[in-house]
Amino acid sequence: MKKKLTCHCGGIEAEVNVPENGFEKIMRCNCSICKKKGYIIGVLGSDDFKLNKGEDLLTLYQFKTKTAQHYFCKVCGIHTHNRPRINPKIYGINIACVEGVKPFEIENVPVNDGENHPLDQKK
């Protein structure tokens, strides 16, 4: 099912494919950036996200290994999506930006242990 994802000001707009019964995987993450954003991540495949509007308004933020790509609107500041470093081909989206999603009604959201990311483990 195709749904619209927008930032707060509406400058960024994307189309996301969400299965009929909801997101296959949702989670929170306790890494240094996600815990400060405090959002619920919906995980989508590489073909399930299409930016339709606002590419010029997207700002990219990267840190540490500079692999993960965190995108937010430079007008309203809302984080819309990311490309995680564990698999930069997929998308993590801010489900609160998706039409019809009520994030405060979702219970028992699992937490990904980003504080102990496998790519940070010393050999």
How would you describe this structure to a colleague?
By secondary structure, the protein is mainly beta. It contains one helix and ten strands, in the order βββαβββββββ. The protein has one helix at 34-37, and strands spanning 2-6, 13-17, 26-29, 41-44, 49-53, 58-61, 69-73, 79-83, 91-94, 111-112. A seven-stranded mixed β-sheet has the order 6-7-8-9-4-3-10. Strands 1-2-5 form a three-stranded antiparallel β-sheet, with no helix packed on it. The radius of gyration is 14 Å and the shape is globular.
Tell me briefly what this model is.
With 123 residues, the chain is mostly beta strands. It is 3% helix and 35% strand. It has one helix at residues 34-37; strands at residues 2-6, 13-17, 26-29, 41-44, 49-53, 58-61, 69-73, 79-83, 91-94, 111-112.
Which ranges are low-confidence, i.e. pLDDT below 50, for 5 or more consecutive residues? none
Q: Architecture, CATH level 2?
A: Beta Complex
Number of helices: 1
The proportion of residues forming helix, as a percent range, comes to under 10%
**What do the pLDDT scores average to?**
90
- What's the N-to-C terminus distance? 43 Å
Structural class: mainly beta
Give the C-alpha Rg: 14 Å
Give the spatial strand order of the biggest sheet. Answer: 6-7-8-9-4-3-10
Q: Any idea what the shape is? A: globular
Determine and state the CATH class. Answer: Mainly Beta
Largest sheet: 7 strands, mixed
CATH topology: Metal Binding Protein, Guanine Nucleotide Exchange Factor, Chain A
Q: In total, how many beta strands? A: 10
| Number of separate structural domains | 1
Strand content: 25-35%
Helix/strand order: EEEHEEEEEEE
